[in-house]
Write a structure and sequence with these properties.
single chain; 630 residues; alpha+beta; 4 domains; 6-stranded mixed beta sheet; 5-stranded mixed beta sheet; 18 helices; transmembrane; membrane; transmembrane helix
Length: 630
């Protein structure tokens, strides 16, 4: 069943019979990637890319040394050198000579699709816009990709072989009842910052999409889809196959890569991404340890995943050329270095990534080593039959434990009754009072243990009843999005919500505010200080008008004015006659305390009917105690 418009997909069965053929499995559910208009880099092959790269290592002084010049590499030699120089920090460099400024200006004048961007500052407030200034300044201090590299990379990739196909590197993992089809896409460049005003640039980019298959009547059917993403992790990376929010073309899931970033999204649109600097993250955790909200100190960026550009996949002009890889693929296994320029950025955003198997530090990626845990599927049974079998096993173990508890409780209760009888007998003799105290101490300890056993039996009985009821009823699956928290749902900008005036004001207001702060610090005269309140009031007024929150601003101003009036009145009264003000405050405190005490007294006094009922209920209990004593 098709859930979106587009070219008719290649007909593929919904379930796959040949489970042992990795290429057949990969072909059956290979994804469709819908890019944004203006995207410069589509998935490309690692072979042509490596052939144009030089291989470098970084020496003790931080300078890069070329081990192999550009044009002297292929995948086999890259694997051999990676194994030989494993103890050295290796990295490839794709663009050895960035384009000059005149060349970049000529490149920009070329006819190509352009992105009509949405102002990212229009979606956030003043504080986030000020924090963004710190991030931009940090680029001057951090290692970053030089200017002209994006244009140079785009020119170089034009010479790569195309033939209407894009390479896709596929891997099949069979684990814990799942068959995982993992698709890796390689891009020559991530130009999110330069071309689309995003977070970072770096040479080379690896992204992945995984389709999780489960057994179904002797065949395999897709159950989940996961895609690598900047802003999410764990369960937020995946969508269930029957989720209405997951678009499919036949049996092929549709993923919308971000423009320049290539981060996977399941919903098309302009996604607001929040990036938090490490220093601000540490400060927020110290000041607000229990607050999960990071929006106030995070920097907003927009990931344009509109899907209105080129599409790659079955049924489209560009299709996939699948190459099966795995742990035995030499260039995947043996080269742990970076696949592009190492800028030594301490934040990591401007450094090239390592290959599909490794992190930048050389450790194996979690999505490669543990694809189930990467998408938080390790604790989820692959099929309903497996889940019900696990429930039946739990019911059997609970029943066995309940049988043990029944016997233990019976024996414990018998022993306690014996201890109580002994204590009563011993208490009748003055010379045996020490033994009586020992028996009563043992009795108290035993009663505590008995109460714990009875409580455990009650909980287990309730648990067994719940599992038994679930097993006796037909299976009822959870909603498709039950695993998604509210914070995991994408924040997609509404292009009609933000006006042109708001976008202009959001871009202009931050520099104006910084200039005013600078003027206030340079010349803190009486004129600038007296104009501070007027400036802030005008600034807040324009911000409220731009965001259509004038009523909220007026309410806040009235509240502030009332509090200031009250505070000023108290100060004036205190200065005029501090004894009278202090006496009034003491009277107010005394009256408040009296009201609270009377309310507590009335709340503790029982009603006459309740008292009579309590006394009536205590009569049988007293008679029972008398009977036991007798």
């Amino acid at each position: 069943m098709r859930t979106d418009a587009g070219p008719a997909p290649v007909p593929v069965p919904a379930a796959v019979d040949r489970e042992d053929d990795d290429e057949v499995l990969l072909r059956a559910h290979e994804p469709v990637l819908r890019f944004t208009a203006g995207e410069l880099f589509l998935p490309t092959g690692v072979g042509p890319y490596v052939a144009r790269c030089s291989l470098r290592t970084r020496g003790p002084g931080g300078t890069g040394t070329a081990l192999v010049p550009a044009g002297g590499l292929d995948l086999q030699r890259l694997a051999d050198l990676g194994r030989r120089h494993r103890d050295q920090p290796l990295y490839l460099r794709f663009v050895d000579r960035p384009l000059t400024r005149p060349e970049v200006r000529a490149w920009r004048r070329e006819d190509r699709p352009r992105l009509r961007s949405t102002s990212r500052f229009a979606a956030v407030g003043v504080l986030a816009r000020l924090v963004d200034v710190l991030f931009r300044v940090s680029l001057l201090l951090r290692g970053r990709v030089p200017g002209g590299v994006v244009a140079g990379a785009e020119v170089l990739t034009r010479g790569f072989p195309d033939a209407g196909q894009c390479p896709c590197y596929g891997r099949v993992v069979r684990e814990a009842g799942y068959t995982i089809c993992q698709y890796w896409f390689f891009y020559a460049f991530n130009d999110w910052r330069t071309t689309f005003h995003g977070v970072n640039d770096h040479e080379a980019d690896w992204e992945t999409v995984a389709v999780y298959l489960v057994p179904d009547r002797g065949r395999l059917r897709p159950a989940w889809v996961a895609a690598s993403s900047h802003d999410h992790e764990g369960a937020a990376l995946r969508r269930r196959w029957d989720d209405p929010g997951l678009r499919r073309e036949g049996d092929h899931p549709v993923v919308f890569p971000g423009a320049g970033s290539h981060s996977g999204a399941f919903v098309p649109g302009d996604h607001v991404i929040s990036v938090e600097l490490p220093a601000l993250r540490r400060m927020r955790r110290r000041l607000l340890p229990r607050s999960p909200d990071r929006a106030g100190l995070a920097i907003p960026f927009i990931d344009h995943a509109r899907g209105d550009g080129a599409a790659v996949g079955p049924g489209h002009d560009r299709t996939w050329r699948v190459e099966v890889i795995g742990d035995d693929t030499a260039w995947v296994r043996d080269f742990r270095g970076l696949w592009g320029l190492d800028t030594r950025d301490p934040l990591g955003g401007e450094r090239a990534p390592a290959g599909p198997r490794y992190e930048r530090e050389g450790a194996v990626r979690r999505c490669w080593a543990d694809p189930l845990g990467w998408a938080s599927l390790g604790a989820l049974a692959a099929t309903d039959e497996e889940a019900r079998a696990l429930l039946r096993d739990r019911v059997d173990r609970v029943s066995g434990r309940l049988h043990e508890l029944d016997a233990t409780i019976t024996a414990q209760r018998t022993a306690l009754r014996g201890l109580r009888a002994q204590a009563q007998t011993l208490g009748a003799r003055v010379d045996l009072r020490r033994l009586e105290r020992d028996r009563r101490r043992d009795l108290a300890r035993g009663e505590t243990e008995l109460s714990a056993l009875v409580a455990e039996r009650t909980e287990l009985a309730e648990e067994r009843a719940a599992h038994t009821d679930a097993l006796s009823a037909p299976s009822s699956p959870e909603p498709p999005d039950a695993h998604l928290a509210a914070s995991a749902r994408p924040t997609v900008l509404d292009p009609h919500r933000h006006t042109a005036f708001l976008g202009t004001w959001a871009a202009v207001s931050t520099p104006v505010l910084i200039l005013w702060i600078g003027a206030l610090l340079v010349r803190p005269t009486a004129l600038t200080l007296s104009g501070a309140a007027t400036f802030l009031l005008v600034f807040a007024g324009v911000e409220a008008v731009a965001r259509r929150r004038v009523r909220l601003l007026l309410t806040a101003m009235v509240g502030v004015a009332v509090w200031l009036l009250v505070a000023a009145s108290l100060v004036v009264a205190l200065l005029a006659n501090w004894r009278l003000v202090l006496a009034a405050l003491l009277v107010l405190a005394a009256v408040s305390l009296l009201v609270l005490n009377v309310r507590e007294l009335l709340g503790r006094r029982p009603h006459r009917r309740d008292t009579a009922t309590t006394e009536t209920a205590e009569l049988p209990r007293a008679a029972e105690d008398v009977g036991r004593t007798g």
